[in-house]
Each structure stands twice: as C-alpha cells, then as structure tokens.
Amino acid sequence: MVSPAIELSGLTKYYGDVRGIEDLTLTVERGEVFGFLGPNGAGKSTAIRALLGFLRPTSGEVTLLGKRVADRHELVEVKHELGHIPGDFAFYDSLSGRRHLDYYESLRGGERRAELEALFPAPFDRKVGTYSRGNRQKLAIVQAFMHDPTLVVMDEPTSGLDPLVQRTFYEFLEAERERGVTVLFSSHILSEVRRVCDRVAVIRNGRLVAVEDIDTLLRKSGKVVRATLTEHPPIETFDLPGVVRGEYESKGVLKLIVNGGYDELLDRLSSYTVEDIEIREASLEDVFMHFYTDRDDGVTENERSEGDTERRERDGDDALPAESTDA
Ligand SMILES: Nc1ncnc2c1ncn2[C@@H]1O[C@H](COP(=O)(O)OP(=O)(O)OP(=O)(O)O)[C@@H](O)[C@H]1O
Fold first, then answer.
1. Domain boundary at 218, 239, 270, which?
2. Which residue, 56, 105, 156, 324, has most beta carbons within 10 Å?
3. Average pLDDT per run of 10 along the chain, which is 327 residues long?
4. Do 240 and 256 share a domain, yes or no?
5. Which residues line ligand 1 (CB under 6 A)?
6. In DSSP terms, which residues pair with 303 in a beta bridge?
7. Ligand 1 atom 6: the closest Cα is on which residue?
8. Known Gene3D superfamilies for this protein (predicted)?
9. What is the predicted ipTM?
10. Are residues 54 and 146 in the same domain?
C-alpha cells in the first residue's frame, strides 16, 4: 500500500511557554492540494517548519512519503523528493538568482529548470539583494519545483506576487495536481484556497479547528449581503431560513451572512426601501467569525478545553486581521 504524502500525529510545538501548534493530527493523501488556512499567528508557519524537520517538535510525529522526519536518515532519504518554499527565504543577497539555481541544481537536480524559469521569469543574472519581493518569490518557486519533486510544501507562496503571476501560479498548481504531485501550502487568503485546494485544514490559535473538503468550506462560508435601507427595522425581521447571522453596521446598513436560498430574504427586503445592495463572497474573517467559532466571544470549543484558559489570557485573543488581497 502506498503511504500517505503527509501524516501528522499529535504534532505540538511550544516556544518556551508560547503555543505555536498543539496536537495537530491529520493525513494528506498523495495527489492532494491541501491548504492550511488561518489568520496571522494561527500556527501555520510553525506547523510547516515542524513537519519538514526544521523545528524540533515538543511532541508528536511526522511522516513524509512514509519516512519519519524525526529519523535523520529517513529525512535525508525523502529530501530529494521534496520541494519547499519557506515563508521568508534566506537567499544570499550578493549572489545572482542564477548562481542560487545552479547550486540547488547541483544538490537536487534541475530537469524542469528551463520550463520554470520561463514561466516565472525574474532577473536571474542580477544579485538577489536587488530583487523585489515578487522576484524573490519567483526564484523560490523555481527552486522548489525544478527537480520535479513528489511533494511540495509552501508557506504563503503567493505573498508578494502580482495578480497576473498569482494566476500563472494557480494554473501551474492545477497542472501539477494533474501530474499527481502533492502540494501543501499555507494561506490566510480564502479565495486562493478555494481556487486551488481539494481540502483545507482550518487552524486557529495553534489548533486544528476543522478539516474540510473544499465544497464543504464553500457551502459553509456562504455570502455576505450588505443592504442599505431607508428604514431601520428590528434585526429579528431578517431571522429567516438561510440567514446565518445578521447585524446592523450602522443605522439602516444591514450585514447578513447567508448560506441558503435568497428568495425569502429578497421578499422581506422588498417590504423596505433598499437604497443599495451588495452580495459578495464571505471573507476569511467572516468565515472564522461565523462558522468556526461557537460563541460570540470568538472562542472555539477546542480553546475552551481544560487548562487552557490561563494561556489564552496571556496570549490574548485573536482579533482577525483583514485580508489583504482577497477580492
Ligand atoms: N520563534 C518563535 N518564538 C516564540 N514564539 C513564536 C516563534 N515563532 C512563532 N511564534 C508564535 O507561535 C504562534 C504561531 O506563529 P506562526 O508564525 O506559526 O503563525 P502563522 O499562522 O504562520 O502566522 P503568520 O501568517 O503571521 O506567519 C504565534 O503566537 C507566534 O507569536
């Protein structure tokens, strides 16, 4: 039987007494494009660094392509089948992109280098110190895929890429999936995860809140309806089937999270004077607020588990940052 691409079992990492991740257990099958989705500070980078063996976990185990990461020899064996894009790549600023790629090619091979250089062109002959964020990221993509790895793990790979290059990258990932490559990447951008992932692990405060297939995530996340009314009817007026939550943002400006049909809502709205209406995809913040918390205080069932209260008070609760590039 073929081993899964990634298996995490109770993976936990504390930095002193600061929780990075706690008790992550999940399996990524071969050929999946799998997302780690969570707000800043959720623990995505910690999980990625621990699963690749860059961080020694406090407890728990990881296997990649059936090899135990904690075993040095097994880790070395699996490395040539791995590609990796770290959150912040430590390039040598005084060396050119080409010199970097020559070096990686000498270590791991580069049978796809020319193809990738053409797809993600950067000023390869210039020193990396002069590169923009986007060019550094393109160099990171080329090095991660050029030896044709079986499994690629990436920490927020599209950060710094302009929208056109992002699109090229998404299309490239789709083609890689067709070729059977397994990809795990972290993101705080819901639309990106929706577009390319088969399944998603939702991570919050270092814990796994849910593992969803993408259709479930889409169904759960729903839409946001924002309507500006001349009137200001009581919020209970919109307590209708399909309306998950409603609030007034200001007088007459209604925000509803909807993940059912719209008929009854439109019918109800038509009793009032609608000055403006907007329907958009829910943002990551909306999804976390409304679907992955159990109470209005934004604390999940997991976080309320015994012994955790003190730590939570110390770490502070996670005010979710707005998404930067999610349309
Ligand atoms: N080297 C470190 N020392 C101490 N605490 C750390 C360290 N690295 C991360 N942390 C803490 O661990 C928690 C998880 O951080 P992590 O960087 O893994 O989250 P993330 O989801 O990748 O966030 P981001 O998107 O901002 O990188 C945070 O509370 C963070 O402050």
1. 218
2. 156
3. 93 95 96 90 92 93 96 92 91 96 94 97 96 95 96 93 94 94 90 88 90 82 91 94 90 90 91 94 72 46 36 30 29
4. yes
5. 15, 18, 20, 38, 40-46, 87, 188
6. none
7. 15
8. P-loop containing nucleotide triphosphate hydrolases
9. 0.95
10. yes
Q: Write out pLDDT tens, residues 69-105.
A: 999 999 999 998 999 999 888 899 999 999 999 999 9
Spatial contact of 194 and 217, defined as CB atoms under 8 Å apart: yes
* Boundary-marking domain end, from 170, 200, 218: 218
Residue 245: per-residue pLDDT = 85
Q: What are phi and psi of 13, to 5 degrees?
A: -140, 120
Domains: count for the chain: 2
Pocket test residue of 22, 24, 45 for ligand 1, highest count of atoms within 8 A of CB: 45
DSSP string of 71-131, one letter each residue: SHHHHHHHHTTEEEE-SS----TTSBHHHHHHHHHHHH--TTHHHHHHHS---TTSBGGG-
CATH number of the domain encompassing residue 242: 3.30.70
Residue 211's pLDDT is: 92
Sheet of 207-213: strands edge to edge? 82-85, 151-155, 182-187, 33-37, 199-204, 207-213
User: Residue 69 corresponds to which tokens in the numbers above?
Assistant: 């990461």
197 is in which domain, residue-wise? 6-218
Same domain, 182 and 119: yes
